[in-house]
Amino acid sequence: MAIAAQDSANATQLTAVQMMEIGGMRAEWHVVLSACVTIATMVLTIMKLRKKIGKLPPGPRALPLIGNIHQIGDFSRRNLMQMAEKYGPIMYMRIGSKPLLVVSTAEAAHEFLKTQDKEWADRPTTTADKIFTNDHRNIVCAPYAAHWRHLRKICTMDLFTPKRLMSFRTPRTEEINQMMTSIHEDVAAGKEVKLHVKLGHLTTNNITRMLLGKRFFTVDEKGQMEAHRFKELVFELFRASSTPMIGDFIPWLKWVSIASGYVKYLKRVKADLDAFLQEFLEIKKAASDQATAERAKDFVDLLLEQKTVSGDGPLEDATIRSVIQASYDMLLAGTDTVSNAMEWTIAELMRHPECMRKLQQELDTVVGKSRIVSETDLPNLPYLQAVVKEVMRFYPPAPLSLPHQSIVPTTVCGYDLPAGTQLCINLYAIQRDPKYWPNPVQFNPDRFLNCDVDVGGTHFQLIPFGAGRRQCPGMPLGNLLLQISVARLVQAFEYSLPRGTKRNYFMNYYSGANKLTSGIMYLI
Ligand code: HEM
């Protein structure tokens, strides 16, 4: 009390400057105090968040807001394989605000695609996917829900069954015969044989015949023009849908997609595609009224037969269009994958004449020289199967598979991963892992002789078609087309590299896809 009285008495004698100093000190204390409280709150929040997020896998340092977007150009399958040596088999990154995992060993792939398959059965989506697929009414991008299950069931129970594949044997053989004839004609005329183009036509025709009941690459002029337009549209679709948009990774930058004209461009491509589909749909609807008994049923026939799609009511034109779009995404997933694998097989056989000779000898012994190899011979050709498996190991046609996404928060291999985490399986790294593959960068089909490892999705060191619920439904067709086409090509022709060509001339990559550099093979 006395001190207080004295203080207040002194206070009356304080100068304005002194008063300001005391006031300033009080203010500094307030600042220091509130800074401490803020820092403590931030630390507590981060600790709480950390506790909530749990333990994340290691990975390259992410920057605020953009995450690892600045490194995205380095995310080729090969670079990712090297990064896995540093960070481990499960790498964590952030693309904008989206968490992304890259998995690089068979054991880790097993955890995601087998042990926790259901939790990781979703697909990430983009602005382009949403526009092109009428809100994900296709197979490849569809979320793990009723619509996807419905289409998937038709694929596995009806479309790609051994019985259905058998019913398309005649059209398949016709297509291969046509390709062989056109190669013979080119060779006879002394022309360069663009094998890569011929294989592209072969796979596209085979797949469109099974899906849409239509042969796109024909010899007549109208057919050629239609095929050309069709191919252009599919390529445009592919180009548009694979262009990354910043708004897909940083949601508050979605306006950039609109302002840049990207959304407008996507809608234009979609409108062109719709016009093409509408024309096709009219023909198809008319044809579906006729009995399909005299021809094998295609995918659209099967869907039209259903009349309802997962309780959506009668099949409206819009639904049928989205159904045909499902066929389009199968075309994207199923044509280049198969034709690239065929091309790589022939290229590797040319680079390894000892393997080519072995395969020719097998064909001579099992089939003989007096008849043409047929699909019924395939189970009796173990070396052919070994060659094809080695190509699928060495050059997986989808080296980073298709991305998956987690539906719920999960714990995998001790890491806590939030719902909505994207998953990329580096098949290229897995299938070149020295733990499973001695001399992994050596092309050696013999490694598959007397070995029960196959591509079916149970041996995780070899999963070129993926594994689990989202595994490629076209695997039986892909395998069949690949084996029979390679057998026919090897039985019919002798191959040599162009004079003066180095052995590894053919082995360069196009970015993103496994393609041959020249695409021109000389057959002698
Ligand atoms: C050599 C040939 C092929 C290879 C290597 C291949 C590979 C793959 C891979 C790795 C996936 C992703 C699997 C996953 O997400 O885990 C996939 C999905 C898919 N493939 Fe294939 N594929 C081939 C041929 C085909 C063919 C011929 C078709 C159909 C005509 C086809 C249709 C599809 C579809 C529709 C999906 C998406 C499945 C879904 O999301 O449920 N593929 N393929």
From TrEMBL:
Localization of this protein: Membrane
GO terms for biological process, alphabetical: system development
Primary location recorded for the protein, binned into one broad class: membrane
Key word Nucleotide-binding present: no
Pfam families in the record: p450
Cofactor(s) the record lists: heme
Annotated positions binding heme: C472
Record family assignment: Belongs to the cytochrome P450 family.
Full protein name: Cytochrome P450
